[in-house]
Each structure stands twice: as structure tokens, then as C-alpha cells.
Amino acid sequence: MIELAGLSKRYGDKVAVDRLTFAVRPGIVTGFLGPNGAGKSTTMRMILGLDHPSAGDVRIDGRHYAQLKDPLTYIGALLDAKAVHGGRSAYNHLLCLAQSNGIPKRRVAEVLDTVGLTTVARKKAKGFSLGMGQRLGIAAALLGDPRILMFDEPVNGLDPEGIHWIRNLMKSLAAQGRTVFVSSHLMSEMALTADHLVVIGQGRLLADTSMPDFIRQNSRSYVRIRSPQRERLLDTLHESGITVVEAGGGVLEVDGGKAEQIGELAARHGVVLHELSPQQASLEEAFMQLTAEAVEYHAHADPGLGPQDRSAGWKGRAR
Ligand SMILES: Nc1ncnc2c1ncn2[C@@H]1O[C@H](COP(=O)(O)OP(=O)(O)OP(=O)(O)O)[C@@H](O)[C@H]1O
Ligand SMILES: [Mg+2]
Fold first, then answer.
1. Residue ranges of the ABC transporter domain (predicted)?
2. Which residue, 91, 188, 231, 316, shows the most beta carbons closer than 10 Å to its own?
3. How far apart are CA 151 and CA 276, in angstroms?
């Protein structure tokens, strides 16, 4: 278990991490989400004792990282896949880590096999592709067979097979009762991988909740309706006090889960429906809604993108 209590980090005037209090529990995959610059990597560095907190405390199974004997056997982490001596082979890189943490030599070959790097084990790390580097970083995290694993953007640079592999790897590590803490920008990927979510924005905690609760609390559920008798349907809904939004392309949207009520109303008034479908916003939409206020680095929509600018379209609907 990883426990943070009022954990804060300040760089000059900049508050990168602001009084974070939460626990990362064993047996599940906990996703760590937040916009660019939210403080995810800084938080992870403080967990590993690589950055000193300005205030607050963080403990790994009740102890500070520096108090752990052979730390790789307690917590394995992938923070920066490029943090490897380029002139060393994958095998020697892992062997150095193993020897400094009292880990038997045979584990090196085992983890190289687990991550699929056995055939390039003797090649120098500087020649590795982005995805191979990520795999080597994951091998280092697994080396000490630790009960706690932490990955900062692990799928960065992995191909679809690699993404699929790491998703299953994280789930299986959690199923073995380990603590798995993983940050990612890929919301669709998190939706498939994480059981629990911790969301931060500008260093502050925005949510600490299960995945289904997060989507329920932060996303919009609505009913999508299409009818060839649009005007009549609008009148009928209006008379019943139901608020309708015109979403363009002949689509009407009604907030909430009122599909049955709308269907029965349409039948009673003899209005033909071509579509009546309950919709739930995706995790990506829920995330964007929650963090909209906390995004520091906004891109400006390319004027050439026009109606295909999906984020602008989504924001328009959500407000
Ligand atoms: N060594 C440092 N010195 C000064 N400021 C820093 C330092 N490290 C991080 N920061 C600042 O702290 C904030 C949080 O950065 P951090 O890298 O933790 O964010 P992040 O959530 O990991 O972002 P990303 O999603 O882009 O990886 C940023 O504003 C960053 O500029
Ligand atoms: Mg980061």
C-alpha cells in the first residue's frame, strides 16, 4: 500500500503538488490521471524519494522509501524509460540493478523473457526503440518481484500488441494481490485497465473513486432521439415538461435516463421514432469535464479543422 498524507511540492512560486492525501491499495489497478503538468510524475518521484516533499508525507507499507532495505524488492517503478546507461546492454543494466538489491541473477533472464527482450538482451540500450526502452523499464520494475508496482505512462511508444500485453500484465499483477499504480493519458486505455481512479489537476486531488462511480458522477447520461415527426415530438415532449436539446443532424438529446418515459409518450401520441438510445459519456468525456478548469496548457484549435474539432464540439454540448 502507498499512503500519501498532505503531500506537497513547491518549485519556487510553482505549487506542483498541493496537499495530496490518498491511498493506493493492493489487489486492484489504480489509474492516476490528470492533464499535462498536473503533478503526476512529481508525485511518483516523491513516492520513490527522488524528490523531497515541501510538506506532508508519503509511505510505502508504512515506511519511507529510504528506510526500505533492497527497495526494488518492495516497490518496482518505471518513471523514465530513458534513465538507462546507453552503453550498457539490457542484460547488464538489469544485472547491475539486481546485484545492488540482493536479487538473484536468474531473475534477469526471467524478466527479459517476460517483457519479450530475450533476443536483444546483449544489445546496447542506446540502440533501443521507444517501445523497447519501455519494455526494459518494465523489466527493471518487475526484477525484484515487488508487492508494489508503479508505472508512469507505461504504454507510451508501445505498439497495439504491446499495449494489450501491458494491460493484461497490470491486471494479472493486481490479481496476484499486488498494488499497481499507473499513470496514463489514454483514457480509453484506463477505462479498460483501471479498477480505481485518482484524478488530480494543478496538483490538487479532484477524485479518488472507483471507475464506475467516476463515470457516473462526472459524465452526462442522456437519451438520443431521431424521429421523422420531429416537430410533433418536440411539442409532445415540451407539453410533458421534458427539456430537449437539438444536437444537429436531426438528432435530439434529453438529459438523464428517460428513454422508457419518452418511448411511452411517443407511442401514446402516435409519433414514429427512428432512434431512442440511452447514452453514457465515455471516461474521456468524464475526465475532460472534471479537469476542464484545471487544464494549464490549452492547444488552440486549428482553424482548418472546423467541425471535426471534437474537443470543441464536446465542450459545446456539455455546457
Ligand atoms: N524540477 C522541476 N523544477 C521546476 N518545476 C518543475 C520541476 N518538475 C516539475 N515541475 C513543474 O511541476 C508541474 C508538475 O509537473 P509534472 O511533471 O509532475 O506533471 P505531470 O502530471 O507528470 O505532467 P505530464 O502529463 O505532462 O507528464 C509542472 O508545472 C512542471 O513544470
Ligand atoms: Mg509526467
1. 2-227
2. 91
3. 42
Which one of the ligands is nearest to 200 CA?
Answer: 1
Q: What is the mean pLDDT of residues 86-94?
A: 88
Q: Kindly give the number of the ligand 1 atom that is closest to the alpha carbon of 35.
A: 25
pLDDT at 296: 66
CATH architecture of 220-278: 2-Layer Sandwich (3.30)
CA–centroid distance, 264 to ligand 2, in Å, is 50
Residues of the chain with CATH 3.40.50.300: 2-217
Query: Atom 7 in ligand 1: which residue has the minimum CA distance?
Result: 11
Q: Report the distance separating Cα 94 and Cα 55, nearest Å.
A: 34
Pocket of ligand 1 (CB under 6 A): 11, 14, 16, 34, 36-42
Candidate of 7, 11, 153, 183 to mutate for ligand 1, largest count of ligand atoms within 8 Å of Cβ? 11
pLDDT of residue 27: 97
DSSP string across 84-115:
S-TTSBHHHHHHHHHHHTT--THHHHHHHHHH
Within the chain, which residue ranges are assigned CATH 3.30.70? Answer: 220-278
Structural contact between residues 182 and 31, judged by C-beta atoms closer than 8 angstroms? yes
**Ligand 1 geometric centre to CA of 276 (Å):** 45
Backbone dihedral region for residue 95 (phi beyond 0: left; psi -120 to 50: alpha; all else: beta): alpha
Identify the DSSP state of 256.
S
What pLDDT, on the 0 to 100 scale, is given for residue 215? Answer: 77
Q: Which three cell numbers stand for residue 219?
A: 459524465
Nearest CA to ligand 1 atom 9: 42
Domain 2-217 has CATH 3.40.50.300: yes
User: Which listed ligand is nearest to 20 at the C-alpha?
Assistant: 1
The tens digit of pLDDT for each residue in 3-52 reads 999 999 999 999 999 999 999 999 999 999 998 899 999 999 999 999 99
| pTM for this model (two decimals) | 0.81
Nearest CA to ligand 1 atom 11: 16
- For 154-172, what is each residue's pLDDT tens digit? 988 788 888 888 899 999 9
